[in-house]
Amino acid sequence: MDEYNQPQVNISLDSAGGNIMSNFTKDNIGKPMATLFVEYKDSGKKDANGRAILAKEEEVINIANIQSASG
Description:
The protein has 71 residues and is α+β, with helices and mostly antiparallel strands. It has one helix spanning 15-27, and strands spanning 32-46, 52-65.
């Protein structure tokens, strides 16, 4: 929660990611942006070498309006 007791998201980006995020958010203030949770789970199958084959699962866990430029 922030100082106004509102939900808050904190992220860390490298320089390239910061530039991408900054450009995207400044151009989309007031528009929604989703938080996507990506997880790789064991599919229960094995490849030819006996290694587990992972299945990618994605889930939108939040959608919030961009309040200001970030990055």
